[in-house]
Amino acid sequence: MDFRPRRGECGETSGFLFPHPCGNFPVAVCSECGKEICQRHRAQESERELCTSCAKKLAERERDEPRRDRESRSHYDDDPYFYSYHHYPNYWWLGVAYHHHRHDPHDFTDGDEALVGGGEATPDDVTGFEDDMGGS
Amino acid sequence: MSASPCCLYYALGGGLGHATRAIALARQLRRIVGGTHHLLVNTPFAGTLRMVREIGISIECLSPNAGADRALEFVARWHDRLRPELLIVDTFPRGLGGELAVLLPEWPGLRCVLIGRVLPREYVERYELARMVGEHYRLVIAAGETSRLAQSCSSITTAPFLIRDWAELPSRAQAARLLQLDEDQSAVLLVGSGTVEECKEIQDLAQELARQWGPELPPLRLACPLGGWDAWRSDSHLVTMERFPLMDVLPGVRLLIGGAGYNLVHESRAAAVPGLFVPRERKYDDQFGRLQDGERLSGDVIAAVCRELAEGRSARPTIRRFSNGAVEAAEQIARLL
Predict the structure, then answer these.
(1) Which of A17, A47, A135, B261 is most solvent-facing, going by the fewest CB within 10 Å?
(2) In angstroms, rounded to a whole number, what is the distance separating the alpha carbons of residues A130 and B45?
(3) pLDDT tens track for B160-171
(4) By CA distance, what is A131's nearest residue in B?
C-alpha cells in the first residue's frame, strides 16, 4: 500500500492513533511547501495559505522572536491543530520527552507527533482483515 | 424450483455499495423467479435504504457498531427464521468478520452464490478464500470487475450491476425536477458516499464550493445520505437532498463529483455523465484501479469543474442503451433454483 500523498488528495497527515494521509478533497495549495490541502488542514497566515505542518513550523520559528504579533494569531487558540501549542506551551518548549512524562488525556497522541513531523503510517497499521465490521 | 423462493442476501459492509449491488440483483431475480428477497445490512446509512420501494424486497438492519459475534447471531437468526433456498453473498465469502466461515458448514444444503469483486491478494491467500468458495459456493459472479475467486467454482463475468435498467431511467426533464431544477437545466452534483466521515468531508466541500460558485456555472446540488441539513438550508447556492437510488437523477446531471466507489463510478459511466472522482484507500476495494484517465479529481475543485465544462466533456450526450450485469446474473442464478 502506498502511503505517500496522492495528487488530488490533501497531502497532510492526520490520525490520533495511526497517522495516515488525510485524503480529503484539496481546496488549496500550501504556499510554503506546495502541498495540496483540504479545508480542515488549511491555515491562513496573513494573505498566505499554509498547511498545518508549515503553519506550525512557522509558529515555532516566530516563537523566538519578540511577541509583537502574537495577537494576530489568536485565532489559533480555537484551532485543534494548534491546541497543544497554545494551551500547553511547555510541550513545545521542552520537547517530546516532556510530553510523554506529563501526559494529559487532552493532549495529542504519538500519532499527532508524527503529524507534526510529517510521519507516515506503516502498512501494518491498516492491513488487518476481518477486524472491521465497517469495511468495504 | 419453489413457487415462491426465499432468497437471503448477505450485504454487510460499510457505505451503500453492498446494499445497492444486492438490491440491483434482487430486483432482477425477483422479476424472474418471484418470491421474497431479504437483504442483511449493517451500513450506517440504513436510513437512506428506507427510500427503497421494491415489492418483495425487505431490508434487515444490524447496527453498524455491532461486532463479528453479533453479526454471526444476526445472520444465523435470519437464516433460521426464513430458511432460504438461496444465499447470495456480496464480496465477502467468509463474511465481513468471518461469520460465514462458521455458519456455512452448518448449512450444507444451502445454495450459495458469491458476487465476486476485487479483493486484495493478501486477504485471499491468508484466509484461503479460494478453498472456502470451492467448498461452499455454487457460482461466482464477477460483476463488471475481476475476481480472484472466479476459478474457485463455476463462474461468470457480467457487466457491472446497476440498480436501474436503461429503460427505467427518467427523462432529463423528470430528473431535473427531482433535482429541483428547471426542466432545461442540469446540475453539477456532489455526492456523499463511503463512510460517515467522508460524507462530512463532502458536506464541508459543498459548503466551500457554494461560497465560491459563480453564477456562470450550472446549479450546484449535493446528494448525501447524512442528515443534518438544517444548519445550511439558508445557503441559496446549494440545494441538498437525500436520494436513493442516485441513478434516478443522473439524466439531469451535467457533472458528477464524488468518491470512486463501485456504484457511483459505474452508474456515472452507464448514464454518460462525466465524473470526477476521488479514490480512497480501501481494505477490500481498489478504487484507484477502477478509474480511467481523466476521471480522477485533482487540484483545485472549482478549476477542475470549469475545465470540465469548458472542454465540453460534460455536454450531456444522449444516454445510450447500456447493459445491466444484474440481469444476466439473475438469469444464471435462477437456474440454481
Answers:
(1) A47
(2) 21
(3) 999 999 999 999
(4) B97
